[in-house]
Write a structure and sequence with these properties.
Layout (H helix, E strand, L loop, with lengths): L19 E4 L5 E5 L26 E4 L6 E4 L35 E5 L21 E3 L3 E6 L13 H19 L6 E8 L11 E7 L4 H17 L3 H12 L3 E4 L3 E4 L8 E7 L11 H19 L8 E6 L14 E6 L1 E3 L2 E2 L4 H6 L8 H12 L8
Antiparallel strand pairs: 1-2, 2-5, 3-4, 3-6, 5-7, 7-9, 8-9, 8-13, 10-11, 11-12, 12-14, 13-14, 15-16
Helix pairs in contact: 1-4, 4-6
């Protein structure tokens, strides 16, 4: 984990919340997080009594010589669970008639190692060459985070204490995963909606620990370094100052966070949530910042859902500074929430220009999206519980 404004442990109220740990039948780790202090003291994790197959070998990394990007080949994921009915959901609590991934009969928030990981199991330092034809173990770690036991909820349905528990779990996992050998970047995200490609409807997200720095992050690092060399200033701070001065794309601004639609938004709905101070990752947020983020994030998701009569599909992606990159201190934690929904019954598909060339043509102006979101947040459905 980056050391700038990103302590893994701080004193007093800012200390990261610690989970109760258990092991699943195949050796995977399972962590229980609780909404209220003291809940964990008397909690004894029940044993996972299922008979499970051995964990798969790590996927294999191959390097694309045309782009320099790494691709993970995880063939075992072809057999992963796909849109099961509610009574077969693996993220619901276990009961007398059925055992799931969570052995407990009830829970607040749980995090566990993915049974079908894109990276891992196993973490170690690797030396990888750029020679064509070489492959390497795609070591790292992939975790699932379930936001609650109720199968019918979404994140926007949670109350503020539960949302704070999720934020605390993200922060704790970021700190711990960043310390693993061979992990270069930690990425927490949520896919919501079948149009996005969700394979489980239970409210949940994922946390990836990559064995390399991702392409999008490398692009941001390059831009931030150039900006520093040319201006002597931090790029994200200048972006934030620019958006605040313009005002037209600001959705909400609190003491600790600013929510805005970026000037060059690519997607019909694209919103960024940026801390008002420079902080590298979720683990570096103070207790007050984590509380404010839970409230801000809930309002944003409810506002996004209020845009249309039916729930809006989205990807919520947390961009965090990489662990060891020499320029990591230039990157600031921020959320990028995007949705391809451009009208009630219309989606933006990445066609030739976007998918092949990465050259986006936007259908909706950022100012229009920001105005709609401000109006949505002003309604009861966009308000905090």
């Amino acid at each position: 984990m980056s050391t700038m404004n990103s302590p893994t442990e701080t004193a007093g109220a800012d200390a990261l919340r610690q989970p109760v740990r258990a092991r699943m039948a195949d050796g995977r780790e399972l962590l229980y997080f609780f909404d209220h202090p003291g809940q964990h003291e008397d909690f004894v994790p029940p044993a996972d009594l299922r008979e499970l197959p051995e964990r798969p070998s790590p996927a294999r990394l191959r390097r694309d010589p045309l782009t320099g990007e790494w691709v993970s080949f995880a063939a075992h994921r072809q057999g992963r669970t796909h849109l099961p009915p509610a009574d077969e959901c693996p993220l619901c609590p276990s009961g007398p008639e059925r055992s799931t991934e969570v052995a407990a009969a009830q829970y607040d928030v749980v995090v566990f190692e993915n049974r079908f990981p894109s990276f891992g199991p196993g973490q170690q330092e690797q030396q990888r060459s750029e020679a064509m034809g070489e492959t390497y173990p795609a070591e790292g770690r992939c975790e699932v985070i379930a936001f609650g036991a109720d199968h019918g909820d979404s994140f926007a349905d949670l109350d503020v204490p539960r949302a704070r528990t999720v934020v605390d779990a993200w922060a704790q996992r970021t700190a711990e995963l960043s310390a693993l050998p061979g992990v270069e970047q930690v990425f927490a995200f949520e896919n919501r909606g079948a149009q996005i490609g969700v394979t489980l409807h239970h409210p949940h997200g994922q946390i990836y620990s990559y064995p390399y720095v991702t392409p999008r992050t490398l692009t941001q690092l390059d831009q931030a370094q150039r900006h520093r060399e040319e201006t002597g200033r931090n790029l994200m701070q200048d972006v934030l100052d620019f958006e605040v001065a313009a005002g037209t794309r600001i959705v909400e601004r609190t003491e600790y966070f600013t929510v805005f639609v970026p000037f060059a938004a690519r997607m019909p709905v694209e919103v960024h949530v940026v801390p008002n101070r420079h902080v590298a990752d979720l683990a570096g947020l103070t207790a007050r910042e984590r509380s404010d983020l839970a409230d801000v994030y809930l309002r944003l998701l409810r506002g996004v859902d209020a845009l249309y009569a039916t729930p809006t599909p989205y990807i919520a992606a947390w961009f965090q500074a990489p662990v060891r990159h020499p320029a990591a201190g230039e990157l600031r934690l921020h959320l990028q929430l995007t949705s391809p929904r451009r009208a009630e019954e219309k989606l933006k598909y990445l066609a030739g220009s976007e998918a092949a060339m990465g050259a986006f043509i936007a259908d909706v102006t950022p100012e229009t999206t920001a105005a709609r979101l401000r109006a949505a947040l002003a309604t009861p459905t966009g308000a905090s519980a």
